[in-house]
Amino acid sequence: MLPALKRYIDWHYFDAWPKILLSWRNLTLFPFYYFSIPLHLSTLLAPWKRQRVKMRIGFHLDDLLSVVAFNSISRIIGCFIRLATILSGLFLMLAFFLLGLIVSFLWPIIPGISIIFYIGKNASMAEETTSLLRKSNGNLNKLGNLLFKTGEGQFIACHLGFNPKYLLGVFRSYQSTKMPDSYPDNPISNSSQLNNAASAAFHKLNHTDQLREIDEKSKKQSINTSLPDLFQTLAQTYSPFKNLLQRYGFDSEDVHQTAIWAEDLVGRKGNPLLLDLDRIKKIPGIGTQWSYGYTVAFDLFATDLTKNTTSFPVLVGRENELEILQQLLSKTENNNALVVGEPGVARHRLVETLAHYIQSGLCLATLSHKRILSLNMHAMISSASSTQEAKGLIAGIFDEASFAGNIIVVIDDFDKYISTGEGRIDLSDIINKYKESTLRFIGITTPSAFHKYIEPNSEISSIFEKVEIDPPDLRTVLTEMEISIAPVLEKKYGITITYPAIKKAIDDSDRYISTTPFPAKTIELLDQSIIFINSNKSKNSLTASDIDEFLSEKYHISIGNIRVAEKEKLARLESLLHQQVINQNEAINAISSALRRARLDVSNQEKPVGSFLFLGPTGVGKTETAKALSRVYFGSQDAMLRFDMSQYQKEEGLERLIGSVKLGSPGELCSQLSDHPFSLLLLDEFEKSDKEIYNLFLSLLDEGYVTDATGKKINAKNTIIIATSNAGGEFIREKVKQGVKDEKLKMAILEYVQQERIFSPELLNRFDATVVFTPLSEGHLREIARLQLEALNKRLAPKEITVDITPEIIRKLATAGFDPEFGARAMKRVIAERIEDKVAQKLLQGEVQKGEKITINL
Fold first, then answer.
1. CB–CB of 799/642 below 8 Å?
2. What is the pLDDT of residue 197?
3. Which one of 150, 363, 533, 566 has the minimum C-beta count within 10 Å?
């Protein structure tokens, strides 16, 4: 028998026919469950919807007759409608049974009728890898053409950033004997290059033996080589494809992972509904809500999540949290849940995914008829004129929801409604009333709010159970971006999001965004990057370089590939800093080396960019070096966060830095680092910090984060940290006078500050470098005078006048500004008094003309 015919016969009898029989059974049973026949039989004589009828206090015959009449009519209407629904379902069951019987009987006796379905199946699905290997006949070029004509191949090409036609054009031209000097441009957005791609030619290489080896190996192992493995093998062995990948910065693993992405998307679709009887049983059928009550007043302030589909309906990688949430809500007692997590970890999407599961028949059977209503508490409370009126309104709609019998209420910022204080209202007593009713609650809150407001409230904590949702790991984030987020964003913006772009967005959001947790920060970065390229570029694919370019523009920093100008700046960093800082070669060399390592991703990325302790007498340039670094590296002195550590003492100082849960105040240090993740943190007079505050900086210096009062980690991995100290200033002067210098001077001062218990060894070891600033000589002061006069001339430039900088004026300023105790600090005062004052007087008296150079005599 011919192989193709045998495959068709096997498919017809052993693949398709069992599925047809299964579909016949499920299709016959589908009306039984979709028309809710079991439910309607059990509630046949129940009233039509649950409704409350108000009665006057005391016995009133007309009230009693009214209720009896209402219930009788309601039961008659309900019985009629349910009976009609049951009969309709039974009729369809019979019709589907007969239809399925005919198809199931004809299918095995007339094989030829299925050939159309067989051809259509193979046209829409990727062929098995063994079939592809067989068709390629050991030729890699032919295999490449076959692979990239499949649906998976088209997907992989697009999501690596290649136009599929471009790749196929390259592979078709592989038979040419002339190797081109360069590849034609590919980008998926550049369709003008497609015709040129076909003319590219390559030397013919013979990989037949390698490919046959793969084929034989798979036969011996009696398994099929997976499609992702086959794509990866092609990327490793087929030179045209391999070279092309290298040109655009990809490797075979990128191809493999993109192929897995394609495979996962197909796999996530699951079985068709007709092959899954469990899903059929759980799908909300016709009339499932008839046995429950109306929620007319409640619906005015609520959104039904089981009816409203969200942008991202499926939460991937949180199956455990979702299972816990379902189990809690299915309990007979204490069946209320608290979803606890930081904003951005997908707390709301967890609840929305549960609603999606209920609507799709994927939930636990006990939840299949539930309605999840998200209550807008703010709108409801705002509609009342007083707190008492608001409580009455809330109690009324909760009564309505409880009577309905199938409501799960979602309350965002739950802690605000079970506590007192500004912007809060305590509904604990109202919520506690429903602990034994059919009404269930899902509260959403943060860990800090849970510990502060909910945990101490025994009335509430006893009837709610916590579902903690933490930021997912990077593997889960990648899966979620691929399966849930990227397809939605692609559809929304009409753009292709490449696999390298997703990887880059995850890595960069992890490294550069600390204010929001995963997965929200990656979603936000992808969304903003797409908007960025739509606004600034004409292209229809998002690449890794686009992510870097967007972040560079947003944060005004250099990310990604180093450009020529930045290379020059990094190479000349020492000389650029020396233009603003006199002497202190050791400090400048240490800082420059650290920045180059960080920018080229050579240093440990789990620590700050660089951390330095500057020791030396006052006025020798410690703070000025920090300012110069901020100006040179970050482009502005405004990027420097300056803290005078003498102002932060004891417990009060610690609370000012990291915040206070008790007072509800944010920390100054934590807030600044969150708002300015790319900055230089200057800790002036570090030795004056309280000893407890030193412990705060251990994790900051060693691991690149500081923990605030609520337990939240604040990222400082993109921060340069400089701590300055005058401790041992006099000791340094004495040692310099004795001729001690360089490494011996450094070792001496380090031993001194430890012996004097100024800094502990564990704190000193956390710094990347401890730099000793030595006293300035008169020659250094002359250079400083010159720099400050040049800075004055820059300030005078808008007035088109300058001060004549002569050797004589520099010498006199250096002499007048020299102060052994305060170093160069006196220089600014001398220049202000003797130069700037005279310039100001001349301007006031009109003695200076535009373009004039002012000569000052001291």
1. no
2. 32
3. 566
